[in-house]
Write a structure and sequence with these properties.
Length: about 375
């Protein structure tokens, strides 16, 4: 089920599961989301989740310690994170609901493990509710004759959405490539004029980075303004391996943050990955960028860089590294990869892409080598 933002995908998925339970066709169900938190907060306890839509006397209860949802009828749903595909190895089911398949970081591995577990009952079935992105697993499913594909646009659920949402979002994105994907549920292929393609990114994707890394860098593209009207703060962590290849480890970019809030987020990324340096663009914020970050992480080596050349000149050498097979994404980064495959030189500067370019430039094009260090398992 392909749906735009706010089109009612979650409600539809929850109703499908409840219908299977009511009909007695599903007794052991898998619920898979991008994270365990997403499953509980959206698919189970959200306003359109399984507990919200159930009749009062048939409302399922959630057992936190065992990560399962129990119906009075005896049906049980087990909760899984797509970020941990191996957790799907072993259990078996007669039905499954996966939410936002196109955002799963380890989509291929999680999908494969789920298929091995759907082996109970006469006709095990599954529903995937997602906003479409042209990722390989989704394209393959849509082309499979055994897959029933439905679509719902954001406009179809207009009566249940806030007026402010339409004023702020619809007016800005309707008719654009991003709007056609996020609002109209169209599967939009890569922009042919973009410097990156999904095929190139997919070719270099891996599930785990090497244990021995030479350097780890966090690239930062700070927003020009702070607060609720700010752009995203691009925060991307990448590492250089002993093999001379780069590994994109994390994307913690987020919008609508105050300077202090995004500095805390950068600090969290720096410490989580035991990074060696932070590289931050200072064109918009000047010395303020360094000052704010040093308040949060006085111990961190911070390099402030200024874009004196056009973005295309900075981005093309990094795109060439991908073409040569020298850059690998460790898992998937949906929003970052959307920007990479849609941005055309001369277009609006995307924040996640900027942060990625700064990090990889530091590591591969102008960085300093160091002694290998072992990553923690």
């Amino acid at each position: 089920m392909l749906g735009g933002r706010g089109a009612g995908k979650t409600r539809a998925g929850a109703e499908w599961v409840q219908g299977e339970v009511d009909a007695g066709r599903a007794g052991r169900i898998a619920l898979i989301g991008e994270t365990l938190g997403d499953v509980r907060e959206v698919m189970i306890d959200g306003p359109s989740g399984l507990r919200a839509i159930a009749r009062e006397n048939e409302k399922p209860r959630y057992e936190v310690t065992r990560k399962r949802l129990l119906w009075p009828s005896g049906a049980v749903a087990h909760v899984f994170s797509a970020g941990e595909p191996e957790s799907l190895r072993g259990p078996q089911f007669d039905a499954a609901w996966g939410d936002e398949l196109a955002k799963w970081r380890y989509a291929e591995a999680a999908w494969d493990m789920l298929q091995f577990g759907l082996r109970l009952g006469e006709n095990p079935r599954q529903v995937m509710t997602t906003t479409p992105r042209p990722v390989p697993v989704l394209k393959r499913l849509m082309a499979d004759r055994r897959t029933a594909v439905t679509r719902a646009s954001t406009h179809a659920n207009r009566a249940n959405l806030a007026d402010g949402f339409f004023r702020a979002v619809i007016s800005r994105y309707e008719g654009t490539r991003l709007g056609r994907q996020e609002l109209d549920a169209e599967l939009i292929e890569d922009n042919p004029d973009a410097l990156w393609s999904r095929e190139t990114i997919e070719r270099g994707r891996i599930e785990r980075a090497p244990l021995a890394l030479v350097r780890v860098v966090v690239g930062v593209d700070p927003p020009a303004t702070g607060g609720t009207k700010s752009d995203e703060c691009g925060i991307v962590c990448a590492a250089l391996g002993q093999d001379g290849h780069a590994y994109v480890l994390d994307d913690r970019s987020m919008g609508r943050l105050s300077p202090l809030a995004w500095a805390k987020r950068v600090a969290g990324c720096y410490r989580a990955h035991e990074a060696d340096r932070i590289v931050a663009e200072a064109n918009m914020g000047g010395d303020m960028v360094g000052t704010v970050m040093r308040q949060e992480m006085p111990e961190a080596p911070i390099r402030l860089v200024r874009a004196t050349r056009g973005k295309r000149i900075r981005a093309e050498p990094v795109a060439a590294l991908y073409e040569r097979g020298l850059v690998h994404h460790v898992g998937g980064f949906a929003k970052l990869e959307d920007q990479m495959c849609d941005w055309v030189p001369g277009g609006k500067s995307p924040d996640r892409l900027d942060a990625l370019v700064w990090a990889l430039t530091e590591l591969m094009l102008s960085g300093e080598a160091g002694e290998p260090k072992m990553r923690r398992l």
